[in-house]
Amino acid sequence: MLMNSTSVGKDTCQEKGHHLQRELNFSSTFSLAFAFISPIVALYSIFGIGILTVGPAFWWGLVVAMAGQLLVALVFAMLVSRFPYEGSIYQWSKYLLGSRFGWFAGWTYICTLPITIATVALGGAGFVAQLLGIDATDKMISVPIALFLIAFATWGNTQGRKIFSTIVWLCIGAEVIGSVGIGVLLLVEFKVNTLSILMPDAQVFAWPEPGISGFFSSKVALAIAYCGWAFVGFESAGAVAEEVKDPERAVPKAMLFCLLSVGAVVAFSAFSLILALPTLEFPAGSDPVTVTLITHLGQIAYKGMLVLFIIGFLACMLGIQASVSRVIWAFARDRTIPCSDFLRQLSGDDKLPTRAFLLTGGLSALLFMLSFTNIYPLLLAFSIAGFYLAFAFPLVGACVSVLKGDWREGPFSLGILSIPTIFAATGWTLFEAVNISWPRYPELSWYENWAVPIMIVFLALAGWVIYSKWASPSYMHSTLSAAVADNE
Questions:
Q1: What is the per-residue burial (b if ≥16 Cβ within 10 Å, else e) of 127-147?
Q2: Rg of the chain over all Cα atoms, to the nearest angstrom
Q3: 110: closest CA among 128, 129, 88, 132?
Q4: Dist. CA 382–CA 359, nearest whole Å
Q5: Any stretches that span the bilayer, and where are they (predicted)?
Q6: Contacts of 286 (CB under 8 A, 6+ apart)
Q7: Percentage of residues in the chain with pLDDT exceeding 90?
């Protein structure tokens, strides 16, 4: 990896008349991305599902997903070093393939993240319910708790960078204890299984039917689909690029260091939990994480663990809101969405997009009005797919740029490996998007089985209406180019 001297160079915030404060550094940018991708959320949201549906061999799905996402992160690091603008995926796509392409990239991301906040809130509500000793499976209990968590996260984001930073660093402390510390304890004191438990059997690789449908219906594909959730959020470091000092260098490093550190923590924690599983036969409705921790640590210690889990989930929600609010603000700055003049206003001494925070919190809360049944699996499925669909926009844009001969290296470069990495990352992302969206559950109703494709079509149509009606003419007819961005 190379960090060459080519740079955007100018302070785009100040030159374009915007007033974002460039106060963040590598450490604070890393902490934002770490909170978003939170190892606690990444692991404990999927561990139980993975064990119950695939078995201990689902751990290898983490390895595959981590390798694929590292390719994506390397490409994103190249892009953010070249286009260090507020809004990450939206901006990269816009400068690679034009304003309309960029708008739909940002729209996909904006639609995905409120769903992700709702998903994380619902998962966190389950831990709050357990801590309070009430029924975590009752939607009439879990949904109000989730709404409270969303409200708290929204409040935390609107109070300024100090409150946000405090909660995020609490999260990192909770991660060290709740993931690494407990992992070491389980591995040293409560290891009950041998390494052979991780070895996949023939059923993991078996195809229920011939052809491509058989592959996507296999357990190995399912494991990779679930584990795709564990390693998204690193791109959030790029969402605040105009608030970071020396973003062309600090943001790529924060993005990559975050993904690598979270990947190591998640893989180690999952490894330790699997070797400590007291049984592979769990009662219906039980959670393998809960059973394992209570069996080895007892109820009192488990209650303490729940507090750490809740901190991790709250910090994750704060990180997600911080990221999506910047994309909404970037949209509003370009006057491409309704109420742009209202949403582009910054508030407080820290000059934060408070109105975008409130909008995001409101949208996330509204999602719980749709249904009280089977909401978690559906939200989880689309929130994962939405990330990979959004990721595909700048990756496809980079591929087109290479094929047209327009690709240029930024301050962060892979040298001769840049182009192969771009195509490999694009292939992985498109594969994972299809894998996650595949209708592999015949026991579900048709609309549940096809929930992801249906949502994609609905959001695409809604996006087209909004873009056609509200995007300013100057934006719609702008002739953006990567060369212009490189020379700013």
A1: bbbbbeeeebeebebbbebbb
A2: 22
A3: 88
A4: 20
A5: 30-52, 58-80, 101-128, 140-156, 168-192, 212-234, 254-280, 300-331, 352-372, 378-400, 412-430, 450-467
A6: none
A7: 52
Total residues belonging to the chain: 488
Read off φ and ψ for residue 352, nearest 5 degrees: -105, 155
Answer whether residue 315 is part of any domain.
Answer: yes
Q: How far, in Å, CA of 443 to CA of 369, rounded?
A: 25
Identify any residues that bridge with 413 across adjacent strands, giving them in sequence order: 2
Tell me which of 481 and 183 has the higher pLDDT: 183
In angstroms, the CA 35 to CA 238 distance is: 14
Which tens digits make up the pLDDT trace of 232-267? 999 999 999 999 999 999 999 999 999 999 999 999
Give the integer Cα–Cα distance in Å for 379 and 116.
7
Query: pLDDT tens-digit profile of 146-193?
Result: 999 999 999 988 888 877 788 788 778 887 888 888 999 999 999 999
Answer yes or no: is 469 within a domain. Answer: yes
Amino acid at 74: L
Q: Are 178 and 312 in contact (CB under 8 A)?
A: yes
Domain count, the chain: 1
Domain extent, residue 321, equals 2-483
- Spatial contact of 280 and 55, defined as CB atoms under 8 Å apart: yes
* pTM over the 0.85 mark: yes
* Separation CA 74–CA 289 (nearest Å): 32
d(CA 62, CA 197): 16
Confirm whether 488 is domain-assigned: no
Alpha carbon 93 to its chain centroid, in Å, reads: 18
Assess contact for 327 and 90: CB atoms under 8 A.
Answer: yes
pLDDT band at 274 (very low <50, low <70, confident <90, very high): very high
Q: Residue 38 is part of a domain; what is its CATH number?
A: 1.20.1740.10
pLDDT score of 447 more than 80: no
Identify whether the C-beta of residue 221 lies closer than 8 Å to the C-beta of residue 65: no
